[in-house]
Amino acid sequence: MSPLCEGRVALVTGAGRGIGREHALSLARHGAAVVVNDLGGAVTGDGSDTSPAQSVVDEITALGGRAVTDAGNVADWDDARAMVQRAIDEFGTLDIVVNNAGILRDRMLVNMSPDEWDAVIAVHLRGTFNVTRHAAEYWRDQHKAGASVDGRIINTSSPSGLYGNIGQANYGAAKAGIAAFTTIVAEELYRYNVTANAIAPAALTRMTENLVSVDAEIAAQLDPRWIAPLVTWLASPESRNVTGRVFDVSGQALSISEGWHRGPTTGAVGEAEDIGQAVADLMAKARPNADMTGTDAEGPGRPTHSP
Fold first, then answer.
1. Catalytic residues
2. pLDDT exceeds 90 at position 292
3. If I label 110, which of 66, 194, 205, 231 is the partner at 20 to 30 A Cα–Cα?
């Protein structure tokens, strides 16, 4: 079997540990040169450490692959530009961006501080924008110059953003924003032969291992290694006709999230006193919001069929 990404160049953010590490290793095994970006901070985003990224680079080079480290902060506009340029300077081009970097500052809404909100939005949503924006500019310029472009953007959403999770208003909002951002970017960049897709992974990493308790069988199904095959395929030339999609992925299942669709509908209602009955009729027909598995579920705090 031929490597899926032979000769391609990838930038993977947050690649020093967990899911990002698996992305970088899988892409390298499939022939890609990889810029391994990781600020190396704590789960909360505090601090920095170059050793996680360097460890992944060492693993890749030991396999005979090509890789370099980057310790930039995706939330910083100039750092994001520099990591895109690093791929071009080191390996001659850039074909793949995997936006994976993230932090957690979970808190119930009534206790969440503006700093906890801003820090999570900055890394996840602004960071995804920053890196994608600089890569998109490079691909647009290449396309306009007549160069061959076959670009891939793979963003990281989350079931928390698609379906909602208590205690993660900041994280979920950022991840929902990333899903919407991805669909729009896909529409804008397709003219340059660039696709954009997102994944909503379920995996046990240092960011999630303290949030859930599972047995050994489920833990094996939530190993981060299950996420990388999809990302590697999406990064390859084989995926050129797939864009604007969000994939749920874990060791338990692979599926496409279908996003918002207009549901039950009635005619226009012109009087406020008539809205209650109209909404009751619509609620009786509407599916309940999904739970974190992406399936219909009702429970404490979740909207029901009746107002």
1. 158, 171, 175
2. no
3. 205
Signed CA dihedral, 236, 239, 245, 248: sign only: negative
Nearest to 196 by CA among 252, 142, 135: 135
User: Do residues 197 and 271 both lie within one domain?
Assistant: no
Domain shared by 25 and 100, yes or no:
yes
Which CATH number is 42's domain given? 3.40.50.720
Compute the radius of gyration of the chain from its Cα atoms. 20
Q: CA 165, CA 229: separation in Å to the nearest integer?
A: 26
Tell me the mean pLDDT in the region 116-126.
Answer: 98
Residue-wise pLDDT for 195-233, tens only, equals 999 999 987 755 555 556 666 777 677 788 999 999 999
The answer to whether position 24 is within a domain reads yes
CA distance 96 to 4: 13
For residue 151, what are the β-bridge partners?
A: 194
Task: Check: pTM over 0.70? Answer yes or no.
Answer: yes
Contact 129, 188 (CB under 8 A): no
Work out the number of other CB atoms within 10 angstroms of the CB of residue 219.
14
- C-alpha 11/C-alpha 219 separation (Å) is 28
In a domain, 4, yes or no: no
Tokens matching residue 245: 């999609």
DSSP string, 237-251: GGGTT--S-EEEESS
Tell me, yes or no, whether 123 and 210 share the same domain: yes
Question: How many domains in the chain?
Answer: 2
Q: Which two tokens stand for residue 238?
A: 């084989």
- 3-state SS, 103-133, equals CCCCECHHHCCHHHHHHHHHHHHHHHHHHHH
130 and 196 share one domain? yes
Q: What is the domain range of residue 193?
A: 9-257
Residue showing tokens 């303290």? 210
